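Below is a filled-in request sheet from our internal design queue. Each sheet records the structural input a requester submitted and the sequence that came back. We keep these sheets so that new team members can see what a complete request looks like end to end.

REQUESTER: design group, bay 2
PRIORITY: normal
MODE: inverse folding
CHAIN LENGTH: 397
BACKBONE (tokenized):
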């Protein structure tokens, strides 16, 4: 069976860092690079390697052969070599018997450690462990290919699958380091792989709270895309949407870290000035986050667009919650306290309306393009919640 390469990268979600502060802390990652090598492909590689290594007539060195007195309990074979085990494991993989497949690949590695099929066996075992969602085991297999088989034609793909598996086990340093290592390979990565590695490295840094370095990597990835897009078409909506989303999320984290503190002053003019300054600083961060999230929507990837739309709504909702939680300072004169309440009602009314409108637009967009994912569901729930809050806290004022 010839090797295949899966180039499509459907939208998928993996929860991260215990996935971080709230439901938005999600790392979206493309599907693995699948190159399952079957028996025909294995024979061809061995024959080509033998022919290229000889200056005379082709010489093929046969693999060791195991002959048993009874059938092997795992495979049912009474005799086998590395190639036969490889073919059997590949057949089990294709049938979806991934647990049996990994055992047979392991048997090959153990009994034929010098075989040229070992690197492909370990890579394919990693793919099978991915199917089983046994991510620690997948990490071990892909790491072995990266570490021990630098000359293998699977070496590059193993870097990307290893980084993905590291993400599944929340080893974000491993994600960033592995993508960095992939970018140092020679010859250099192609434009799409380079873009994936740059954005993936940024995600790994983001998940370690290294927001400054992550922001720099995302911006460099976008510049890299802009430069290459002028020369050739790159089907990169996924990665560009991802980079824009995380740039928005970095600003959103700064927004959430900035709190509104009630001033302890006794005159309305001073209080209004301080409240206005606090709100201005916080709203600047909100607008910065919103700008990148809107650009993520405009990229046109359905998954990232709905996630970004939902996230914009949560920013307005968060500001609403914070303003509602700021108490009236106890030492304010009655007239100043009334100014406080009037200012709060005015600000809250605008925020609630904006949040409702953003959520409505996000749900309409999802319905228009036929997208249904967790962000669409969260949007619907948030929209109903904000409508109730509006009626309870704004309409009667």
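RETURNED SEQUENCE:
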């Amino acid at each position: 069976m010839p090797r295949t390469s899966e180039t499509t990268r459907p939208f998928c979600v993996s929860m991260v860092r215990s996935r971080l502060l709230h439901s938005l802390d999600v790392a979206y990652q493309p599907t693995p690079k699948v190159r399952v090598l079957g028996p025909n492909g294995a024979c061809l590689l061995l024959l080509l390697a033998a022919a290229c290594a000889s200056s005379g007539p082709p010489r093929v060195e046969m693999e060791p052969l195991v002959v048993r007195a009874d059938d092997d309990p795992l495979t049912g074979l009474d005799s086998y070599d590395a190639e036969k085990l490889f073919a059997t494991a590949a057949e089990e993989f294709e049938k979806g018997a991934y647990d049996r497949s990994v055992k047979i690949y392991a048997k090959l590695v153990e009994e034929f450690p010098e075989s040229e099929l070992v690197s492909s066996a370990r890579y394919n075992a990693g793919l099978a462990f991915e199917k089983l969602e046994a991510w620690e085991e997948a990490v071990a297999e892909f790491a072995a290919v990266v570490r021990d088989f630098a000359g293998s034609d699977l070496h590059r793909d193993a870097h990307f699958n290893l980084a993905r598996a590291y993400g599944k086990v929340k080893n974000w340093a491993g994600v960033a380091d592995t993508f960095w290592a992939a970018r140092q390979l020679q010859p250099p990565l192609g434009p799409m792989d380079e873009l994936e590695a740059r954005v993936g490295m940024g995600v790994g840094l983001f998940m370690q709270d290294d927001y400054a370095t992550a922001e720099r990597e995302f911006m460099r990835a976008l510049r890299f895309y802009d430069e290459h897009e002028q020369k050739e078409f790159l089907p990169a909506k996924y990665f560009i949407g991802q980079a824009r989303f995380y740039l928005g999320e970095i600003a959103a984290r700064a927004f959430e870290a900035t709190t509104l503190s009630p001033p302890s002053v006794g005159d309305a003019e001073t209080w209004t000035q301080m409240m206005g300054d606090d709100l201005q600083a916080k709203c600047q961060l909100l607008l910065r986050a919103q700008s990148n999230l809107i650009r993520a929507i405009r990229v046109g990837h359905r998954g990232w667009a709905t996630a970004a739309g939902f996230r914009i709504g949560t920013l307005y909702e968060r500001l609403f919650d914070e303003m509602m939680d700021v108490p009236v300072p106890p030492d304010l004169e009655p007239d100043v306290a009334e100014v406080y309440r009037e200012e709060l009602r005015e600000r809250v009314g605008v925020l609630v309306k904006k949040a409702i409108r953003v959520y409505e637009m996000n749900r309409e967009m999802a319905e228009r393009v036929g997208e249904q994912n967790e962000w669409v569901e969260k949007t619907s729930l948030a929209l109903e919640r904000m409508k109730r809050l509006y009626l309870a806290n704004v309409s009667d004022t």
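SHEET NOTES:
- The two ends are 71 Å apart (CA to CA).
- The longest strand covers residues 13-15.
FILED BY: M.R.
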